[in-house]
Amino acid sequence: MSRRRRRKNTAMDAFSNPAARLGFGTMDLTQATDYPLTRLSQNYELLTSLYRDNWIVQNIVATIPDDVVRKWFDIKSSIAPEYIDKFTRMERKTHLRKKITMGMYWGRLYGGAAGVILIKGQDDLSEPLDLDMIMPDSFLGLQILDRWTGIYPSGTLVTDPEDPDFGLPEYYSIRDEERGYMVANVHHSRIIRFLGRELPWLEQVTEQYWGESEIEAIYNEIVKRDNVSANIAGLTFRANLDYMESDGLDQLLGTGNVEMQRRFWNTMQAQSIMESNFGMRILNKGDVIHNRQYTFSGLPDVYDRVMMDVAGAARTPVTKLFGRSPAGMNATGEADMNNYYDYIDTIREGQFREIIERLLPIMALSAWGVIPDDLEITFPPMKTADAKELADIAQAKTGAIISAYQSDLIDAATAMQELQALNEETQLFGKIKDEDIDANKGKTYSSIRAMQDPMSGLFPAVEEGEV
């Protein structure tokens, strides 16, 4: 039997209570639940229609990538500031931030997308990328293609365990779907992959080594939300209804002739016009008109719960996904945003760093002609503290450093290094120089105090036991 075929074996360790119709093998309604394997990620038309039509789907696709690249990255190296400026200009010239954002968009929407690394003078894309052949000003950016616009992974996989793409396709063919011919065969070292949600290995093979569309995991919650919203909107038409008692209406509609019915409808139409224009109705004596109003109590709570389900499935706070302010007593949304920022940091370290570090040597050679030995990147914090928060952080951390120094746990040089490290977080102590740190190595708080004491050394030390 194929490994992909789902085996249906008799459960030997399940709960069952036939008398109460609960559990496995009973007529319990929950036992009728099934989860068929739909593979919605392969439905291009549905995913595209959802993205074009549904603003929530657009937010789900775009919100997280926008936040991942919003703070971008900082280069940590000893190179001069003018070289950093040249690097930044190259980023702007190649629209790198926009291209990476687009790649993440379509990777999340369709489950997979790719960015082809473009380098001037290297036309044979089937050859492995050679860093030694990258000339100054040769990096041209990325060409973004989603999995449905003509890029197809090959069946041969990378077999070198030291290769970052070990176990992934070795080549990607780019085809012109309209004309029906292959444009290029691209080596994997020239490809930046953008995926949706990760899948088990066999499902990756089924999806041609792409991931799962973000919308596939959220689709059912989107359907529920749209139906609830449409039903609530439909109820507004029934919020204020007038109905009239009319004697003999059933006989008129059932046995009356066509002319009598026509006159009745004309009368009702005239009454509707009069009510709309003048706010009045003219009734025969004995007719009765009633007014019925619909109350919407409870519906906001239902809609809020549906929104929370969508936001939970999308792993995005309601405040971000729906643009809604926190509601409820003492609600600030701060805890939700902190959890969300932690998730964004996870993506930045797990996915975004891999993309940037793959491009960084290429960009360094193109901008500077050399790759510095100390070239590193860091990500700025997602949350920017206000002035009061910065002051509180600085006071607390500075106090801890001073306390350790005054307890002789660290010397003055180490304390100065710790204070210098706080500069990125608090914008303080940035003027401490490295030569000042070197000059204070080995100097503890007690030794400095002893040097400042004018009576120090005038009296001999008293040994223990001496009087």
Q: Which structural class do the helices and strands define? A: alpha+beta
Poorly predicted runs of 5 or more residues: 1-7, 328-332
Can you tell me the number of structural domains?
2
Number of helices: 16
State the end-to-end CA separation: 94 Å
Beta percentage is: 5-15%
Would you list the SSEs in sequence order as H and E? EEHHEHHEEEEEEHHEHHEHHHEHHHHH
Mean pLDDT: 84
Provide a descriptive summary of the structure in words.
It is a single chain. The chain is α+β, with helices and mostly antiparallel strands and 467 residues long. The chain folds into 2 domains: 36-233 and 315-384, no CATH class; 387-452, no CATH class. It is built from 16 helices and 12 strands. It has a 3-stranded antiparallel beta sheet, covered by helices on one side. A 3-stranded antiparallel beta sheet has the order 6-7-8, with no helix packed on it. A hairpin with a 4-residue loop joins β1 (16-17) and β2. α1 (44-53) crosses α2, α2 packs across α4 (96-110) and α6 (214-235) runs antiparallel to α9 (299-314). The radius of gyration is 35 Å and the shape is extended.
List keywords for this structure.
3-stranded antiparallel sheet, 16 helices, extended, disordered N terminus, 467 residues
